[in-house]
Amino acid sequence: MRILVVAERKETELRRVSLELAAIAKGLGESEIVEMAGERYSPLPFVAALAKKVEAEKPDLVLLGATLNGRDLGARLAARVGRAYAADVTELRADGSGLAVTKPMYAGKVRAKLRVPLPAVVSVRPGAIPLKEGAPAPQVAKLEADASAEELTFVKFAATASGGKRVSLAEARVIVSGGRGLKGPENWHLVEKLADALGAAVGASRAVTDAGWRPNEEQVGQTGKTVTPDLYIALGISGAIQHLAGMTSSKVIVAVNKDPDADIFKIADYGVVADVFEFVPAFTEAIKKARSS
Amino acid sequence: MKILIPLKQVPDSTVRVKVGADGKSIATEGITWSISPYDEYAIEMALERKDAEPSTVVAVVTVGPARSRDALRQALAMGCDEASLVTADETAPPLVVARALARIVSDAKPDLVLCGKQASDDDQGFVGPALADVLGWPHVSMLTKVVPTEGAVELWREVEGGHEVWKAPLPALGTVHKSEKEPRYPSLPGIMKAKKKEIPERDLAALGVDPSAPKLEVLSMEPPPSRGGGKIVKDGDAKQVAEQLALLLRDEAKVL
After folding, report:
1. Would you say A270 and B245 are in contact if contact means Cβ atoms under 8 Å apart?
2. Across the interface, which of B125, B217, B229 has its CB nearest the CB of A75?
3. Residue of A171, A172, A150, A160 lying closest to A41 (CA atoms)
4. Are the C-beta atoms of A27 and A71 separated by less than 8 Å?
5. Phi–psi pair at A83, nearest 5 degrees
6. With a CB-CB cutoff of 8 Å, which residues 56-115 of chain B face chain A?
7. Predicted-complex ipTM score
8. Which one, of B234, B168, B209, B212, lies nearest residue A42 by Cα?
9. What digits encode the pLDDT tens for the residues B91-135?
């Protein structure tokens, strides 16, 4: 099988998911890894350049990361070249003349196994097919975006107040999320300090983003982000089904809530029935101590 | 300005989705169907434009089974002006749905098409960008705000750490992540008015679009692996519990 991998960079480093894709592609057959050259993602110039390459070289499979841009680019590219498209897959293997993939459906409430006919375009969820340690750094070629295809004008970047200093939710290995139990945005330092101690990304429940305590981009769950970190810590989150759908595939789940009957405890690996205001500062100190000894 | 929203009817987000007896689809008996949440945000975004500029016309369309009529009726009750239904088998491939929608767009001639960023049944996010591609229109994904300007539109796209703001010539397409406000509930007069509105219906076959497209085949469906409730750590005061938990995470779960 011949595979074209579309890699992405965050600032100077290749995204971890791109390294994961390189390793998956290597296991499937003969692969080429390209990275789009261009200041920022824009669908038309990226699709035009990639479609030209795909039509000329006819790889059996185009792999992208199921990131914000990867999912958008993959969908439009698949439409342009008339290929099958599967988004956000969490498992994938060759299956006769096609691929067998697993992907979440119904906002994560169902796992579907699908057969994808080749040729195809597939986006893979970051972290779902983890990298083995010591995988060699992939060779990445630059592919120039077709600027003549652009019809949009970039106006500006408007940063959110808390913007961009932390690890992104989608790729984070550890996430600390806060819910209504935190009682207000002024208490978010509790969540942030624990996240800092863990090198974690910060998330929130929908109640919190709807109330405007935190920006929408931090929402975990249905209509927010679906995440699969190694460690998910839910602080003061009761566990509405829409929230659970977005984080139930996390490897280890920790829940802190003062209500012992909260639904979040039904899926947590470790639970603490406590007041977040009392417990979280102590836990932050304990994490620092455990990580340094 | 005319805004068209292609919507999809899916199981309501409060439904505990279960796998059906065939192991390849979900059990649909007795479940509540609703407008897919991101499509609802798209409708709200369009209706906010209409609130600001009452001459705005908001139309909705769906390509799907006959039951989707209820979702269109719901959109009318929220305040949309027009609705139409293209009846199609649920398994119609997304590319064919995109072609059918492109035909509707060519007839309706909207300035702006807003799609939800993905339907919360297949979670694919294919039809929006595919529709833009069939139409040959530019598109911007992950919208949280739309601001009309002279002959164009400013589209706010949520990305890591903030928003990219793009200016698109009209007509253009956007896929919606969130509206500024929560989707409105239908008002009683809205419901009454919606009851009287006609929802014209056509069959997919009558549109004469190319029905050939690659198709994904569902081999099986299963619930996500169940997670039993785990350990409750409770011995001692906050500090002692915190220390036990930190050590469990480090030495037992090995995630620190």
Report:
1. yes
2. B125
3. A150
4. no
5. -100, 165
6. 94-95, 98
7. 0.93
8. B168
9. 999 999 999 999 999 999 999 999 999 999 999 999 999 999 999
